[in-house]
Amino acid sequence: xxxxxxxxxxxxxxxxxxxxxxxxxxxxxxxxxxxxxxxxxxxxxxxxxxxxxxxxxxxxxxxxxxxxxxxxxxxxxxxxxxxxxxxxxxxxxxxxxxxxxxxxxxxxxxxxxxxxxxxxxxxxxxxxxxxxxxxxxxxxxxxxxxxxxxxxxxxxxxxxxxxxxxxxxxxxxxxxxxxxxxxxxxxxxxxxxxxxxxxxxxxxxxxxxxxxxxxxxxxxxxxxxxxxxxxxxxxxxxxxxxxxx
Length: 245
Fold this sequence. Notes:
With 245 residues, the chain is mostly helical. It has helices at 2-35, 39-62, 65-68, 74-96, 107-120, 138-147, 152-166, 182-201, 208-214, 216-244, and strands spanning 130-132, 171-173. It contains ten helices and two strands, in the order H-H-H-H-H-E-H-H-E-H-H-H.
């Protein structure tokens, strides 16, 4: 019994890594659902992967996985899992369901390469709780592309635009870590997740009111991220304007 108690912290740390790796299983099931033409199931599995990703960090920090499994890089496992679920699966989904026109097919490998670059950046996650560059939310784009119906040229252009934003060092909020309005960010994120779950339940014929309601959080996220990034420059400009007056 004493030996078990001694090993318990290490076993818990490995359990967290196993929990993270379940996101890869969800990603595989999402890929299979995409190939089988089951869009609703795709987002059920991606939602499950998102839930795992949102909760494994809390467990990892609480159970000190870096202390008890020092030779294993849990962050790398997390990045691999995120790349599959936030980039590879959505790109395949967009291709499989014909959400971009043939003229814009090249946008798909551009997304794959740009996102890989973003994940490999050492400053992809900052010490003060932000992402650097567009944080590869391709699952969100794929979700709304499907819901809003065929606009293949527009969607192709948006994929290229957001791929370019991966390389622009704008800081985007990391909802569970960004100090500014952290509780509100988490609450709105959870609210948005619940609305999306309601949409997915009736994915073939969603309530338009729920679809538009679900846009509140993505819009809030982008507006707040740009505001926080440019706020120091805005304040400097305002001080300069007042000084000239």
